[in-house]
Amino acid sequence: MKPKLLYSLFFIILLGCWTSTECFAIGTDTVKAHKPKRVVKHISPHVSYLRESIKGYKPWFDNCTFTNQYTVAQRLKKYPFSKAVKILAVSFNGGAPPNPEIIIDRPKPQDTMSYREQQLYKGFTIINDSLDYSTLYEVKTLNQDQIIRLTNIMYNAVYKKILANTADPGSSCYNPRNAFVFLNKKGRVIDYLEICFECEEYRSKYGRLTIGDNCTQKFGMIKKCFIDAGIKHGTIDLSWK
Length: 241
Description:
Layout: H1 3-18, H2 30-33, H3 45-48, E1 64-66, H4 72-76, E2 86-92, H5 115-122, E3 126-127, E4 130-131, E5 136-141, H6 144-156, E6 157-159, E7 178-183, E8 189-196, E9 201-204, H7 218-229
Antiparallel strand pairs: 1-6, 2-5, 2-7, 3-4, 7-8, 8-9
């Protein structure tokens, strides 16, 4: 081929490349060069920092944490677990405070009430260390696994961090509907842990029994113990509200 013709052909090819970007992809990874950019999804900080968005989040993890401070054996040696032969989870009418020895005077039930309704009207009743079962809506006996779980919540669930000014503000209401009742071998009441999930307050027979550190989610964990034991009134059934 003549040099003059060769130069003309080269000039035509060069002119075509000048009007197209395809020639400049020669020697490069053309697939990579044309790959669309990955769009980064920006999440609002108001959403990304929500506790619920964390994988594995549980509501009771907010300020409660479990420790290994007490073993199962150590927990079961604590009062009143060490003395109880049987532990009941119960529900009842939340109309009046309990009294371990006497029934406090209450308005007389209407004449239209049946005997059963009159008994339930009394609420949680213990007389001379004897539990009046006729005043209870539901009664479930805790098995060993449920007892161990309860002790773990009471004694090993603590604050992640103790903050200043964490005093209990108290509550204007107290209408308990659930309780754990601790019985000895004669069926007598050693103690009870009565709980109002509505206002998150509790009481026991002599004030010796507490739920330990009252981290925010502890009542929710204890309520779950009642639910899993089969207690609905005061936990799932909220028709009384």
